[in-house]
Amino acid sequence: MSDKGIARPDDHGSQLATASAGLPERFENPGLPPHVHRAADDDLAAAKRAERQVAALFTLSIIGTIGFIVAYFAVHNDTTVFLPFFGTTYLLNLLLGLFMAIALLGIGFGAVHWAKTLMSDEEVIEERHPIRSDDATRAKALKIIGDGAESSQLSRRPIIKATMGTALGLFALPFLVQLAGSMGNPTKALEESKQTIWDVNGKHRKAADQGKPIRLMRDPELTPIRADEVSIGSVFHVMPETLKDSHHILEDKAKAAVLLMRLDPADFKDTEHGRKARDWGAQGIVAYSKICTHVGCPVGLYEHRTHHLLCPCHQSTFDVTNDCEVIFGPAKRPLPQLKIEIDAEGYLVAKQGFTEPVGPSYWERTW
Question: pTM of the entire structure?
């Protein structure tokens, strides 16, 4: 077979050698262009002017941080303001965002202006060296760092040092304030978690209605429920009568949702919790919060033969005959029971709200 036209390995080597024959062994160092001095490098007045400008930007950041904290405590959550092209928005969110932007931009622009006008901007070239330098080189590096700190003129510009330090120090406060605000008072938070529009003495009720029993209403029709309308095995999705007067319907409805069902009084277990469940009901009719104590999903599945309530999200299962004790799944606490009675007209009413927190469980919420 002829090998004409077939490239051999040694042919490639000769081609590469020929192609590289005309290249220089190394490129000449092109060097650096002449250094252009800035006004602040040669003019003391320009340097002072730049220093004042940097200090002014850091001071602006300080004002933004202080404004953030003042707005956080002084402006109510529900206060709104109308903005052209944007519509109505919450004033607190607007002010917090505005002051946070001022605080961030003040620090950022101040640092950039400081670097561009006062810090040394001479370019240097460093030849490559082994990763681990010798001791002399390491000592030289430390000296370079020290010289860099000196060239930043931080020690010679006390007004910049003072305003920058204050701006950076204060900038942490908004995050600490929000963290502290989110934690709040654990005891107060626990008490607030029990408060729903089922509370007969709640602040949502008119003065004339304070203390009066609250009727149980069908959801979503909001029609009252008579005890004789609830048959054994039936389930009603229930809301309080006070929902009609709510100004925060979605929030109030989410916490006040209740499931109503009727059992034979003999079906309740003869335990402390079973007797409590029966006694807090009326003729075998019991009402429990619909909000799962695991992560807050709606518990809406009732199996009347076993008297079990099932949460469809993560399969937490509650035993209605034993005060909704958790018998399966990740929930750690029974569903809170609403104490109900039958009024003189035969309607189901609640004379008090929930006595334990509604919704997901935390470490301070126990049975």
Answer: 0.52
